[in-house]
Amino acid sequence: AEGLYQHYLIGSELRERYVNEMGFLPEKIQPNDFVIKVYASALVRTYSSALSQLLGLYPDNSGPEINSND
Fold first, then answer.
1. Which DSSP category does 40 fall into?
2. How far apart are the first and last CA of the chain?
3. pLDDT digits over 14-34, tens only?
């Protein structure tokens, strides 16, 4: 649980930099805006870590729909 929280904090820091400060990423992603692909091994822990970081980057349903089949 602590590691997942740390990944969430990393995502939050990335949001602060790339969304709030630099405007590099949009504040909220609309369907069909662009695609964010994240690659992780098939281990549950790596998938969970990546997901936690994305939730920090785009909290409160502001991010894209997550599709684990790609």
1. -
2. 26
3. 999 999 999 998 888 877 777
Read off the pTM. Answer: 0.77
HSE-CB of 12 using CA atoms within 13 angstroms: 7
Q: What is the dihedral of CA 7, 8, 13, 14, to 10 degrees?
A: 80
Q: Judge contact between 58 and 14, C-beta under 8 A.
A: no
Q: How far apart are CA 11 and CA 54, in angstroms?
A: 6
Q: Give the C-alpha separation, 59 to 42, whole Å.
A: 24
Per DSSP, the three-state class of 48 is helix
Q: Which long-range contacts (CB under 8 A, 24 or more apart) does 64-70 make?
A: 64/29, 64/31, 64/33, 64/35, 64/36, 65/31, 70/37
Please tell me whether residue 21 adopts helix, strand or coil conformation: helix
